Here is the input.
Amino acid sequence: MASDRMMQAIRALERAIDRLEQDVEGIVSAASGPSPGIDAAAARTALRSLDSLITELKGQDVKEQVGG
Here is the structure.
């Protein structure tokens, strides 16, 4: 079923985002000064945006299942 595949993809994205968040935090905490080439604030903003998108996609999937 398409919605099952969509939910599997969403869960995979969530796991990838969690790993990215951990990587960003690890890089930021390991750096004694500003991280060269990495904008930690922008990275966090991008990850929050992806989290919001996933939440939105989940909501759309629920509406489709209900018939709305």
The chain is about 80% helix and 0% strand. Residues 17 and 23 are 10 Å apart (CA to CA). Helices lie at 2-30, 40-66. The chain has a mean pLDDT of 77.
